[in-house]
Structure formats: C-alpha cells, structure tokens
Design brief:
The protein has about 400 residues and is mainly alpha-helical. Helix content is about 75%, strand content about 0%. α4 packs across α8, α4 runs antiparallel to α13 and α5 runs parallel beside α13. The two termini are about 15 Å apart.
Length: about 400
C-alpha cells in the first residue's frame, strides 16, 4: 500500500477522532446538566467576546511582513470560496424553485463556513502527525495565522453582506414593514446607520486581530511582546488561545446535542398530535398558528446545503488551490494549502442562527438550526476525506 495514502488516512483519522472527543465532552456536559439551554448562550458569549479576541491577539507571534507578503492572498481565496458557495446556493434555489426565505438561508449556509473553531482544532493533530507539517518547526503558529487571516475576511464579509440579507428576511406570517421614516433615521440619518454598521464590523475579535497584525509587522514592537519585557502578556494569551480552541469545539458539541434533542422532541410531539387527531377524529385545521409555520418542508434545504457545502465546494476548491499554488499565484507552502483545503470543506457557520435570534426572528432561527445536526454529523466523514485527498495532492 502507498505510504503516502497510509499517512493521509492516519492524519485524517487522528484529526477526526480529536474533534469527536471534544464534541462528546460537550454532549456529556449538556446531558449531565453542567451546560443547559439557559447557560449555553452565556458560555458561548464568553468564548466569542472574551476568549476569541485574546486568541487572535496571541497570533502576533506568527505575523510578520514576509508572511503577509506570501499569504496575503488568503483574503482573496476566502472571497472566492464565499462567491462559489453563494453562486451554487443561488443556482440550486433557482433550479429547484426554492423560495424566500429558504432561498436566502440556503445561500448563506453554503457561502459562509465555520472557519474558526473547527480549523483551529483540526490544526493540532494535523501538525503532530503529518510529516510535511513537521518540516516546519512553526507549523502550528503559521496554521493559526492563516486561519486568523481567513477569519478576518469572514468578519468583514458577513457583517457587510450577510447581515443585511438576514435583516431583510420576514418572519413567517409577519407583515412587511411599511417604508416610513423611522426614529433612527430621523435621529441620525444614513451617517448614523453607517457608523453603527462599522461599529458592529470592528468587533473585539477583529480588533484583536488587527492589533496582532500591527505589532507583528513591526519587528522592534514584536520583540517587546514575544521575547522582551512584555512577553508575559503574550504567554498568557497563548494559554488562553489553547483553551479557547477546545472550549469552542465543546460548545459546538453541546449546541448540536441540544439541537438534536429539540428536533427529537418536536418529532415525538408531532406524532402524538397526529395520533390524537386520528383517535378523536378531529381535523388538523384547528391547529393553532403557533404550531404551523406556513412554509414548505425544510428537508430539501438541509440536503442541498449539506451536499453543496460538504461535497461540491471542496470538489471545486481543492484542484483550484493546487493550480493556483503551482502557478505561483498563491503560496504553495504545505501548511497554507492544507488550511485552505480545510476551510473549503468545513460545514456552515452557526453565526446566522445566532444573528437571526438576536434580530428577534425566532422562527427563522429555529428553522435554520435544523440544518446543523445532520450537516455536522456528515462533515465528520467529508472533512476526513478532504484531509486524505489534501495530503496526497500536496505530496
């Protein structure tokens, strides 16, 4: 058997098992009551608003002018990934006549991926078990830097393009808002709206990343934080960074467990309701509006979002990365190539669900949340396959 193929399989197996263990810890913590539906948002908020900005700041160890010069096109590749996903989702919705709001939910799910938590946690086993990664003593730090650059583009794109798309969606049964001059427009006008959007864009995570880029690209300032008198700050941030990677993955496992239980209970309640209707002979027309969403089945969206995001997008992007690397357009470094392969293959970002809930669109948020349990379970196998193929493509 080809040694390269054996190595590729082992790297994928170790990476997948590590993710599954962290998922399982999150599921167990939820099952035993340490994490509940009430505490999960606070824990997730702590990870996103406190730990993640500190993680991005710790990346200053990896940033320098040479890295940005060689890998700055990661921003462009991230945009290409999103455009491919958005176009595929839009084409699919047109061909199969998927209407609003499911059309927008499908496009958002295929365009935006979980580009932070999963790539971060997959980095450790890949660096530890892949011979090409071990050639670079700073492989883990470079990997984190690549993920950070990709994540920066995601923040900019999602809050400038994706968020307005979600804001325009109407809740099922909700009447369109009349186009009248709102209090906000009277108070601040368009300038105030642009200011608020910019404030949302430059959230703590992006500010931490920009600060790390600034420090990392100035050698004297970088020395102060890495080897000089302030290295204790960076050392503490590195400890937080390592903790954050595991914490976010366990939180993801917890949210998947809660979603699975909620869907199981909904199916059970629906069967009991149908059995009661049959037993009493009453028509289902008396069902309250709260039990109906006046929308078609979400199953086609779940299938197409998973198929396009997990199979079609990486099938397009992997040979594209290889061709661009061979042509010298992007870095042909093994670490950069592998991170880009993984970013194209990870499942959809859960940010849309959180944002819909924050916008007071609970029915749309709950509808989109149905996607993640089956998609993330399938991604265990598809991401492992992409790692195997990626190792062989890189050689």
């Amino acid at each position: 058997m080809d040694p390269l193929f054996v190595e590729a399989v082992l790297v994928a197996v170790y990476a997948t098992l590590q993710v599954l263990v962290l998922y399982s810890v999150g599921c167990y913590a939820t099952y035993t009551g340490f994490i509940t539906i009430a505490t999960l948002p606070k824990l997730a908020g702590f990870a996103i608003k406190v730990c993640l900005p500190l993680l991005t700041f710790s990346l200053l160890r990896s940033f320098d002018g040479q890295l940005l010069a060689e890998s700055g096109l990661v921003f462009v590749v991230a945009v290409v990934h999103q455009l491919i996903g958005a176009l595929l989702g839009l084409l699919c919705s047109v061909v199969f006549r998927i209407r609003s709001p499911d059309r927008q939910l499908l496009v958002m799910s295929v365009a935006y991926c979980n580009n932070a938590a999963l790539p971060f946690v997959l980095t450790y086993p890949i660096v530890a078990n892949w011979s090409r990664a071990q050639e670079n003593p700073n492989a883990a730090a470079v990997s984190f830097a690549m993920i950070g650059l990709y994540f920066a583009e995601f923040l900019v794109s999602f809050f400038t393009v994706g968020k307005p798309v979600l804001q325009r969606l109407q809740e099922p049964g909700e009447q369109p808002t009349p186009k009248i001059l709102s209090d906000k427009k009277v108070e601040g006008g368009r300038f105030w709206q642009l200011f608020k959007q910019a404030k949302t864009l430059f959230d703590p995570t992006l500010r931490g990343l920009l600060l790390a880029l600034f420090i990392g690209c100035i050698p004297e300032l970088k020395w102060v934080f890495v080897d000089g008198p302030l290295k204790w700050i960076t050392g503490a941030m590195v400890v937080v960074a390592d903790t954050t990677v595991g914490l976010k993955t366990m939180i993801l496992g917890s949210s998947l467990y809660i979603g699975f239980v909620a869907q199981w209970r909904q199916r059970k309640a629906r069967k009991l309701r149908q059995a009661r209707i049959i037993a009493t002979g009453k028509s289902s027309s008396g069902t309250s509006n709260g039990d109906r969403d006046d929308l078609p089945s979400f199953t086609p969206v779940i299938f197409w979002a998973s198929f396009l995001k997990l199979i079609v997008v990486p099938a397009i992007c992997l040979p594209l990365h290889t061709a661009l690397g061979s042509a010298g357009i992007i870095s042909n470094d093994p670490i950069t190539q592998m991170i880009l392969h993984i970013q194209s293959a990870v499942p959809s970002a859960q940010t849309s669900v959180s944002l819909l809930a924050a916008m007071d669109k609970p029915r749309l948020s709950a509808r989109l949340a149905q996607l993640y349990v089956p998609q993330y379970l399938c991604s265990v196998f598809t991401v492992a396959t992409v790692i195997i193929v990626g190792v062989q493509l890189i050689g």
